[in-house]
Amino acid sequence: MWLLYPSESDFPYEEEVLRDPLKLQAWQRYLAALAGAPPQKRFSIYERAVRALPGSYKLWRGYLAELLDAVQPLPISDPSYASLNSAFERALLTMHKMPRIWLMYLTSLTEQRRVTRARRAFDRALRSLPVSQHARVWPLYLRLVSLPGVPLETAVRVHRRYLVFDPSHLEDYIELLLRSSRWQEAVTRLAAALNDDRKSFCSVKGKTRRQLWLDLCDIVARHAADIPISGLNVESVLRSGIRQFTDEVGMLWNSLADYYSRRGLYAKARDVFENGLNAVLTARDFGIIFEGYAQFEQSLLAAKLDASDGEVDNGYLDDGEFWLNGGDDTDFLIARIELLFDRRPKLLNCVLLRQNPHNVEQWRRRVTLFDGDPSTQVSTYVQALKTVDPMKAAGKPHTLWVDFARMYESRNLLDSAEEVFERATQVNFKSVDHLATVWCEWAEMELRHNNFEKALQLMRQATAEPSVEVKKRAAADGNEPVQMKLHKSLRVWSAYVDLEESLGSVESTRDVYDRMLDLKIATPQIILNYASFLEEHKYFEDAFKIYERGVKLFKYPHVREIWAMYLTKFVKRYGNTKLDRARDLFECAIEQTPSQEVKPLYLQYAKMEEDYGLLRRALHVYERAVKAVPDCEKSSIYESYINRAESLGFKEVRKIYEQAIEAGLPDSDLKTLCMRLADREASLGEIDRARRLYTYASEYADLQSDSNFWKMWREFEIMHGNDNTFREMLRIKRTVSLPAQTFKRIKRQRLQ
């Protein structure tokens, strides 16, 4: 105790506080001077100070802070905590409006695990402090009620009060309710927040309304038995989610079915699965629902099989759970599962058709699903043709009509098949080719049943040009149907002309071809077919006239085949009797053909001159050809040119060789020509000419890739040369093997 008495150094401070006990600075100077004194001595000074100045916030805060530091290392059961709490209570008599004092006190009580006293202190703090300061108190209050050992009811009540202050933290309250298994209140609160028309609720955890809806649906589905039917309309909640969140439809349908299944309403759950399968629009959602449906049926079967192994009494299992009344229905459940899996392809097809009712391929697949059931196939075709809009169709809508007619044809119901085709020809398809295919398929069906005249009549009807009145009426409507363009369909005309060639007369076939040319729908192949048809029937001049029309009608490259056939046929037909006309044709063809493609025409032209004309004319054609064709094709022309000039003597051939060497041929072709000419010159004794040719070609030769050239030159020098010429050949060979820069330097030195 003697330590608590003032020392000699404290006398000035004692005199000051005794002289003026209401002066705060005097007490602060006294406490500052005792900074190193024992805590008990400082506490006694603080007690005297707060008794003298009970309304001083600085004194109370400093005093309470030092008390908190003093009890920090002590166990909670230590009596010092009682003194601390007593000091806080005394401080709050005058400091009840100071939030910092309250926060220090509440934090201390929370750490002491004095739940009841802390809860009452929190309530007092909320009553004492203004509402603007409550946001500082509530986090501590929520931390208190979240401590282990705090009664769940207390935590729920505190969170409920907190929502009155800050409704945005509804998610924390719902999580607490879920932890405490209060499913009814949790779903009610969450549903109320989501159904708020003002949409004032905003998740503080960053969840979207979609995520919250899915959480709600998951809760009501998993805990269906714990939520009273009168408390919340679960079905309406789930169906509302199905309408709003189309990307989670499959999961929500399964949740609704699971809700009824957990309540034991198996028939209702099955109806929900069926409704879901018949309502979804994507294969993904269908897969989710179907998998859930299959698991549901399999779980019922497994439960039934387990129940059959136990004791069954009056429809109750041995564990007291009610099952199905009546006898053994295991076979019925097995049959139901098999039927479900058998229905899967049809159900999936329905989903894809709901997704796009104009999907032609899916309608065709649907028909194949009913193989063996003609009546259902017919009704499917009828439904498809009523549903599919040709302008919106994904695929080829005319194939539905064709398949429908073929189905009747396969059952020898030709009248029904013809009726289908006739109705199909009245449909306004998106493409003329679709309508043309219908007409061609109809005609082919008639041909398969030997109705040749009917097939021809159909083609005549399809290619008939609409009347002027019909055209005016279609123009007035503003939407010209494809039927108005059918008479210009190449597909229909091609089928028509094939039928006429096979079944009609020569005149009728020629009439069809001429109409195609007049309509300007003929292709180069049609021209060739027409000319070939006329040649078969000995109308050669008429065939050549058709070729003439073809080369005037088309441009390059489409006209290439027509020219080739025309020239070949003309030369073969007339030979040397109409050479001038043939020459005119060749000149015209060469004039129209680009240089990259003119080589075959020049060769054909020269061949004609060789066979039926003059050799000089043929050589002149070759001379023109080497000037007209690209550099890469000149070599082959020169070879033919040289071969044909052999009959005029080597002097003429030498001129052609020299012309070729100077014509700018590729290096490989140039070396070949030089070697051939050198060989010829050597055979005639012109050794110097041959050597100059080898020397000239060496400028374009490579030491590694042109070993044959160097070998021939070496053999030439061994046979015809001497030591000097051989050494010169070796020197040139070494020069070629040097790097390019060195070679250029040596060449410059030689020139100097």
From TrEMBL:
One of its GO terms (cellular component) is post-mRNA release spliceosomal complex. Pfam families: HAT_Syf1_CNRKL1_C (PF23231), HAT_Syf1_CNRKL1_N (PF23233), HAT_Syf1_M (PF23220). Keywords: mRNA processing, mRNA splicing, Nucleus, Repeat, Spliceosome. Residues 10-167 form the Pre-mRNA-splicing factor Syf1-like N-terminal HAT-repeats domain. The keyword Nucleus applies. Residues 390-738 form the Pre-mRNA-splicing factor Syf1/CRNKL1-like C-terminal HAT-repeats domain. It is found in: Nucleus. InterPro entries: HAT, HAT_Syf1-like_N, HAT_Syf1_central, HAT_Syf1_CNRKL1_C, Syf1-like, TPR-like_helical_dom_sf. GO terms for biological process: generation of catalytic spliceosome for first transesterification step. Residues 170-388 form the Pre-mRNA-splicing factor SYF1 central HAT repeats domain. Belongs to the crooked-neck family. This is Pre-mRNA-splicing factor SYF1.
